[in-house]
Specification:
The protein is mostly helical. Helices cover 18% and strands 4% of the residues. The radius of gyration is 22 Å and the shape is flat.
Length: 103
């Protein structure tokens, strides 16, 4: 398994990178649970990991705090009510008409 931080190739059963020590656990983007490297589905919530199940793609979306600048996060949180907008309930009706033509 390739390390997402240093790109070092590790043994498939490794839990931590031999070169930099970062955890090789596959973090679920849906619930944040750590899974064994190479997992296809999260063993906590059942979320399917995309592609080959690489740790780099799953860890990319785990914590927005890690890649969102602090000043921008504060601005979003203070104007949260303005961003939400108005919510209205809508009822949608779909009708299917099946026509059989017999000859």
């Amino acid at each position: 398994m390739k390390c997402s931080r240093c790109q070092h190739e590790n043994a498939s059963e490794a839990r931590y990178c031999n070169a930099c020590g970062v955890s090789l656990a596959l973090i679920c983007p849906s619930c944040g649970h750590g899974n064994a490297p190479g997992s296809v589905f999260c063993n906590q919530c059942g979320h399917a990991f995309s592609g080959s199940g690489s740790a780099a793609s799953a860890q990319r979306f785990v914590a927005p705090e890690s890649y969102t600048p602090k000043h921008l996060a504060e601005k979003i949180l203070t104007s949260k009510s303005a961003l939400e907008g108005e919510r209205t309930q809508v009822t949608v009706l779909f009708a299917l008409r099946l026509v059989l033509c017999l000859r």
